Predict the structure of CBPM Carboxypeptidase.
Amino acid sequence: LCLVPAAAALDFKYHHSEEVEEFLRGVRAAYPALTHLYSIGRSVEGRDLWVLALGRFPTHHKIGIPEFKYVANMHGDETVGREILLHLIDFLVTSYGRDPVITRLLNNTRVHIMPTMNPDGFEATKVPDCYYTRGRYNKNGEDLNRNFPDAFENNSASIQPETRAVMDWIKNETFVLSANLHGGALVASYTFDNGNPVTGSLNGYSKSPDDDVFIHLAKTYSSNHASMYKGTGCDNRQTFPGGITNGYSWYQLEGGMQDYNYVWGQCFEITLELSCCKYPPANQLEGFWKDNKVALIEYIKQVHLGVKGQVTDKNGNPIPNAIVEAKGRPHVCPYRTNEQGEYFLLLLPGTYVINATVPGFKSMLKTVEIPDNTGNFSALKQDFSFPEVSDKIRSRVASCPKIPLYQELTRASAAVKPTVHILVLMTVMLVIFK
């Protein structure tokens, strides 16, 4: 109890790198059973990229419990998200065990919070400004939100240490849902940020296979925000009906983080623009926290949308890299099970056919009726067992091109077409008999 005041004493001001680290270490010391502090890497100038994980099992992934993340301060001069995530941490740890909703949320979700992805840029912003400053970029002068591999073009930008750290982080965790927090507008923006004629770019909208889910996610945040839902934007020239926008419809962006999460990370991410002023005066921070508090919590709950489960062999052993997708929702990089054979698919309430495919074996189809389980903090559970697969046969990783151009959407998904291996085998046998 003596440690709690030190961890909870968070005022509304801007916190520099040393203060952020001190706060996170204090929370970790005060709540060791609920939190886990770790660094995913270092910035160009050698600052740690700290993440605080919160949950009933904070140190490691637990089967059935989805992984969620918030990332802020990707642009070093966009500062509101950086501070409200510190206050979100403070709210979560002090509410756990007292507030039944927060307690159930953290008992059934592992929440990762990165207050700053670009600490060098923040420290380089010597004179706060509502508009552009050089602190937007990392120490090498690169825009981190133009630095990821792109789903539509060959991004020639040199991958930065901060970007590489996030890419490895996404690869090593089973993230299901995410948001990155920015400033300079007031809107919830969703994928795709880039596009081509197949995704609708000729009509000014780049539509993903899960467009309905992304619209729901953006509306969830906007409608629970104090004013974002009004859609008035930051001036009379810029309006966003309902406080949301398709990223491409707003402006085309190559190498963005939210598209990378969705395509390569199997993680649904949206971009939250939280303030018209990029770096507002510190005396406005408390107001920003109050405006976003409910929306931040309601958005985390959406990680429990849809369906989840395990894919196992005849002996009950998990099958990694099995493809599991909803029929009619193809992904160029097929969505695959993790090392524990788990899958998580975010889907709105309704009836779906879920297709599980172990390459080389017959696919399994199951029709599911998905309710809205966000209030119960658990997606619908649907497991798949392949009786013809033994633990001696391991599934090969499904192919995923480094530049998955989305003309592939015009073809059938790898998860819903007949198993290619069987067709090839039949052809070979026919040739032999002839």
Q: What stands out?
A: The chain is about 25% helix and 20% strand. The first strand starts at residue 35 and ends at 42. The chain has two domains: 17-304, 307-385. Residues 205 and 249 are 5 Å apart (CA to CA).
